[in-house]
Amino acid sequence: xxxxxxxxxxxxxxxxxxxxxxxxxxxVTYGCxxxxxxxxxxxxxxxxxxxxxxxxxxxxxxxxxxxxxxxYQNKTTGISVAQARGVEVTAVxxxxxxxxxxxxxxxxQAITGYGRATKIQMQNAVKMLxxxxxxPKPDDAADGLAAAITHAFGQRFKEQQRMR
Length: 164
Description:
This protein is α/β, with parallel strands linked by helices. It is built from five helices and five strands.
């Protein structure tokens, strides 16, 4: 199964694509879609949609996993990210890719075993789980990979439950 993980964002949307066969994880690709801060909002949203649509078609995932927006102290930032997230969800839905969502705490728990893990702990866990040479950078890309891995682990649990 190929899983496309997304860490929603406007300035930087992190993504990570992995293959999961029920026993092992394999890194396919990861990175970020970045939009310039000085560009008008509609231009930035179109850029995200266009680039994400291209990535989804190139990687052909079976399922997609999103990190849920949880809490923002700055309402303006939260609204902007929510708009970008809407475009990101639409891009996935347009291609009829099943979409799953996980809170930041669920992702941290799945990846490190601790729901309040730090960014560094998360990055190191992602590096280890995917047998990478270096910690994935930037943070947003590592978060996209973590969302994909979380979904893979959830799938493994469902398969184990189904066998009983």
